[in-house]
Amino acid sequence: MAVDDISFDIYKGEIFGMIGPNGAGKSTTFAMMTTLIKPTGGSIKVAGLDIEKDAEKIRGIIGVVPQQHSLYPDLTARENLELMGNLYDVPKKVMEERIDYYLKLINLETHAERFTGGFSGGMKQRLSVISAVIHDPEIIFWDEPTTGLDPQTRQAIWKLAGKFNREGKTLIFTTHYMEEADKMCNRVAIMNTGKLVALDTPENLKKLSNSTNLEEVFIHLTGEEIRD
Amino acid sequence: MIEMNLKRELRNSWIIMVKEFKQLFRKKVLVVPLFVFPIVMIVFFGYGMGGTVNHISMLIVNDDTGVLSNTLVQELGTFIPKNSDIKMFEITYTKDMTQSEAEAKINAGEYKAILLIPEDYSDSIVKNEKPTLILLIDQSDTTSSGIIVEVMKQILAKRQKDSILLTVPEIYGSLKYIDFLTPAVIALTVFFGTVMSTGYAVAGEREDGTIVRILMTPISRGAVIFGKTMHQLVLQLARAVILILAAILIFGVTMNGSWLLVALILVIFTFGAVGMGIAISAKSEDMTAFQQVSMLFTLPSMFATGVFFPLSSVPDWMRWIAYFIPLTYANDAMRIVMVKGQGLEAIMGDLIILSVFSVIIFAVAINLFRREA
């Protein structure tokens, strides 16, 4: 069982981090919250909607930035965004304005008509983020947003995250970078072997384990054994 | 409410279809498997195994005591098939040879055909009786033998109707091979093309994660499948039309039946093939796995269903395998329409079987896609 009997609330407008070693159940929890898979028991509500009964409604108000960049390499940056906008049924005029705005924001406006197949990892990641918010979602799910990125792109991604949060969007993400979770998150959930082992603000977690950084708390709670 | 939903589903399917076409037209290299390859296949098999056949070595054993056989012999000697400017037969003449001696020569491969003209040929005609010609042909060369018989019948038909009996021992067909080949090659190409490109689209999009992103939008999985199916239907029908036109223009293949019926067969069949592509890809880990598993289904279809040879000429066990492969029925229906020019009733049985196959495999595919993708 990937996730075993966990229960928690995420508050509107917060930045919520999920950390845990490989196989802790983060991705499964994520997939359930984003309606991609159904839980075998229990219930999950997203924005007050039941993930089993109202899956399509939920998908309309959440944005998911997948771990893979997940862009069509043979479509241009703009076409990728338009495809998502169309599937989210964003009115054409609003969509085009948003696309122009966001492309400028992530510094890709000069690459709008290029196929994404030729993009660098950083460019793809930036575009991938924008693809997930083209419909102005209330909640953004973000799976390992900065894994494998250069420091500049990481910083750019976090700036974007901060901007979205200031706009009132709730952010939920998973990460392996403790200092990012420490710096960015209002609250952090630590998962291990399918269970929730801690959930609190970074400050409280550190106080509780008498540590100065989140990494120590993490190792303290999940053990030193390497997971595969 | 339901109406709104349906409208939205159709709209979403349309978005997916447009996206698929956009991607298709950008992959220039795909033109090769889509259009060039099937034409090359018809060219090679068509010319290699059929089409017009030239330089057929023929022995005429003329025992006729009269002179009426001379015109027949002359006509054979100068016969030039349509679509060609080369004489079809290279004729050697002889006399006094028994049928078994002649058969030995065929067996030895000295001649492709031997025509035995009996002593009483002229006599019988004069007496208003029916003389019997015996035509021995090399049965191992199914292609030429079919054509030889066809030509003999043509030549004899030009003479007094029904006045000459042509006996062709153990002959199985009278079709031009290319006519026989083309409808099945089209069904085969549509089948291969659909299974492969649907499968690649699904397996590939799963590998690069794009399908997950699509499924994270409010679009239903049904609409994703329907969009991809529509794309295939349009694509495969366009392909079939181009291939049939090419076959007509290049080989003078005759299209005796209704284009609408051809479309009907292919639409039903394409549905099944889309289902098969999705089902296989849903069960495959990645593109390579998909390729291997799909071969398992497509290759037997190619060789066991009588694309290249008539099912009547294969052993029973092989025919039984063919009965379980949907392409067999598509081939049959395509031939009945394109070659024999028959109507809907003639292909009803095939269509029912194809529909049952398509519905079942499509349902399985949607089910697997729901759970796996």
Account of the 3D structure:
The complex is a heterodimer of chains A (228) and B (373). With 228 residues, chain A is α/β, with parallel strands linked by helices. Chain A has a domain at 15-71 and 137-222: P-loop containing nucleotide triphosphate hydrolases (Rossmann fold, 3-Layer(aba) Sandwich). Chain A has nine helices and eight strands. Chain A has a six-stranded mixed sheet with strand order 4-5-6-1-7-8, with helices on both faces. In chain A, helix 3 (77-87) crosses helix 4 and helix 3 runs parallel beside helix 5. The model of chain A has no long low-confidence stretch (mean pLDDT 88). Chain B has two domains: 2-48 and 176-372, no CATH class; 53-167, abc type-2 transporter like domain (abc type-2 transporter like fold), CATH 3.40.1710.10. Chain B has helices at 2-26, 31-49, 69-77, 99-107, 121-126, 142-158, 177-207, 210-215, 221-251, 259-282, 287-304, 316-323, 326-338, 344-372; strands spanning 56-62, 89-94, 113-117, 132-137, 165-167. In chain B, helix 6 (142-158) links the parallel strand 4 (132-137) and strand 5. Chain B contains 14 helices and five strands. Chain B has 373 residues and is an alpha/beta fold. In chain B, 66% of the residues lie in helices and 7% in strands. Residues 170-175 of chain B have low confidence and may be disordered. Classes of the chains: A alpha/beta (228), B alpha/beta (373). The interface between A and B is medium-sized, with 29 and 20 residues.
Throw out a few tags for this protein.
A: 228 residues; alpha/beta; Rossmann fold; 6-stranded mixed beta sheet; two-stranded antiparallel ribbon; globular; B: alpha/beta; abc type-2 transporter like fold; 5 strands
